[in-house]
Design a protein that fits this description.
2 copies of one chain form a homodimer. The first copy, chain A, is α/β, with parallel strands linked by helices and 303 residues long. Helices cover 51% and strands 13% of the residues of chain A. In chain A, strand 4, helix 4 and strand 5 form a beta-alpha-beta unit.
Chain lengths: 303, 303
């Protein structure tokens, strides 16, 4: 593959930035990769791992001469970072973020963006429950969606950003800012909140039931613990910054849950059966869309 | 391995019975396997698949001369089945169930159990989202837990039942009736109810967001759809028969969820961060207990 940006600066060196760097190296997408992280430890680890060509001790140094700047920090830190780097950005450069929300990111970035620098929102829908520079791997984005939120950006700049994500292995789709935040509340934010809640409940009960909750986790609970092990800082920021959409979906969720709770209390088996039948169709849609495997035991190796 | 029961009768021919039969054949655990299902279609499919040596057209025929009778029907049907087969049971035979709840099963079975027949509750903690005779496979129980609920059964009879489950590949643990129902409400029943609810909410919203919910499901939602595709009849019966424990755990869940919802509304980031940090430890416990893989991308093959 050919170079898409001559110089790429990664601000923040966690799972996403590390995976982007490895994927850029794998496919020869960037000429030079510079990087910066707030934490000295992360910078040191990144120097050892070698996925950046240059690790800088300030964000301003890292963005110097960069054609693409990736804001790969928690959403809550994006405004401060943007303010920090604004005066060092090369005219004509493109800045992207990789955050899970977009309205708040645009609000944080735009006031600091120089008039001769472009900004495009991007959101790679890929992750693991691990975090930090050691957690990155080149295949993270392969065949996964990356949502592109251009808002008012120059179409040619946006096209180049999409080309870049394709070169990292992703498929892309464009979306409006607020629609993005609403879709992500449904497919990602509320499922995470619910998983965190369930694991929290079980953790409370663990004091009663000893280690049984862990021992027998394969019965359904295990899937929740995987989701609920994700990075606490990232997820705190998601809920702090996508408040309206998450509260709206959460309202619908508790409404439905109370209807099912009432059916259990009243012994209304028909209501439960009809509800449980309807949800099977959603699963079939996901299998047909190629978003998951239909293999027995959930496609996992036996443990 | 040597034969543990000379003749085993499977009443109900779904995922669990089919998998038990394949595992019995793999390890030579039974002399002869007979089977019965309420549905003619399931009996026909089972005859074609060949995992039973004899497929009978009545439950009473199937249990004739059987040393072990497995009640592998939805929990809500166990009382009627037990009443049906009681007069055909061989003196000294052992009956087991494989249901997800136990108090209700004991209440349903015991009034019909002949005094010279034994009953032991068993609950293999294994499953997939598939159902029916075609969904069974020999490896389903390998290295998974099977909970044994002896109540007042003869210890020698119980030991034989445990030996049988070991021969199918499972590990076993003994538990009291009510403790079983409470532990399972936490690790399995409520996680399923929550997953069903979340998928139901998304299905409602799908009418608004077209197929986006399915397209971007890998962001967390996908794990819920897998759980929520499980057999509707089985899960209806679980909630109809484990009412007290599920309502209790559900009460705790909504209490915690409301506390998090309030933190989102108030913008209390510390509360969210502390909660999300605590749940990570539970995940670590599960990895350390060998109940799941720590591999990137959740140990799934890339799709």
């Amino acid at each position: 593959m050919s170079i898409i940006y001559d110089r790429v600066a990664l601000i923040g060196l966690g799972l996403i930035a590390g995976s982007m760097a490895w994927a850029m190296k794998r496919n020869g997408v960037a000429g030079t990769i510079s990087g910066f992280a707030q934490s000295q430890a992360s910078r040191d680890v990144t120097r050892d791992l070698g996925f950046c060509d240059i690790v800088c001790d300030s964000a301003l140094d890292a963005v110097k001469d960069a054609d693409l700047i990736v804001l790969a920090v928690p959403v809550g830190a994006i405004g401060a970072v943007m303010k920090d780097i604004a005066k060092g950005l090369k005219p004509g450069a493109t800045v992207i973020d990789v955050g899970s929300v977009k309205r708040d990111v645009f609000n944080a970035v735009m006031p600091h963006l120089p008039s001769d620098v472009h900004f495009v929102g991007t959101h790679p829908m890929a992750g693991t429950e691990h975090s930090g520079p050691k957690s990155g791997f080149a295949e993270l984005f392969d065949n996964r969606w990356c949502l592109i939120v251009p808002d008012k950006a120059d179409p040619q700049v946006v096209a180049r950003v999409e080309e870049y994500w394709h070169a990292l292995g992703s498929m892309t789709d464009q979306m409006d800012i607020d629609h993005h935040d609403r879709v992500c509340a449904v497919v990602s934010h509320i499922p995470h909140l619910i998983a965190y809640t369930m694991v929290g409940v079980a953790d409370d009960l663990r004091k009663v039931t000893d280690s049984e909750v862990i021992k027998y986790s394969a019965a359904g609970f295990r899937d929740f613990t995987r989701i609920a092990a994700s990075d606490p800082t990232m997820w705190r920021d998601v809920f702090m910054t996508n408040k309206d959409a998450t509260l709206e979906i959460l309202g619908r969720f508790t409404e439905e849950l109370f209807a099912l709770q009432r059916a259990i209390r009243k012994g209304d088996g028909d209501h439960l059966f009809d509800y449980f039948t309807r949800t099977r169709a959603v699963r079939r849609g996901i299998i047909e869309a190629g978003q998951d495997t239909d293999a027995p035991n959930f496609g996992r190796s036996k443990t």
